[in-house]
Input
Amino acid sequence: MGHIRFASDVGAPPDAAFAYAADFRHGPQWMFGVTEVAPLDSPDQRLGAAFSVKVRLFRVVPLRTSVEITEFRRNAVIGYTLRGRVCGTVTLRFDPLGYERSVLTSEADYPPPRGMFARLCHGLVDAAARSALRATESRLRREIEAFHGTDLVGRIA
Output
C-alpha cells in the first residue's frame, strides 16, 4: 500500500479553504490530470456524493473513473475514494494556523500495483503518484489563496 502526505501553509482561514476545495466545479483547476468533474447524483457536497471524473493519466491516457466522498466534516476534512482503473483515497484536511491562515494536509493511499509488469514498475508508480499529489496540493494552495484574495506562500513539511 502506498501512502503519501504533504502539508502546506495556506493564506486563507479553514472555512474559506474548505469552501473552495469542496466545490466540485473548481476540481479541474486544481486536481492534477483531471479535465472534467460531473456529479452522478445531487451536486451537493456531502457524505456519499458521487462524481464521474475524466482523467488524463500521465497527461496522455484518457480514462474515466468514479469518485465518492467518503469523509466530510464541514471546514475540517474532505475524503475522496476513487474507484476504477485509478483507485485509492485522497484526504484533504484544513486546520487553523492563526489569523487568516490554515494548514492544508493532503494525503493519498493507493493499493500496490498488480501483475508482473506493474510490480516491476512499482517505483515509477510511486514517483508518479507523489508528483501528482504534490502538483495537486500546490495548485490547490494557489487557487485557495486567489479565491480568498491573499498571496501568502509558505510550506510546512
In short: The beta strands are 2-10, 34-39, 50-57, 61-73, 77-83, 88-98, 101-110, 153-155. The chain is about 30% helix and 45% strand. Residues 30 and 74 are 20 Å apart (CA to CA). The first strand starts at residue 2 and ends at 10.
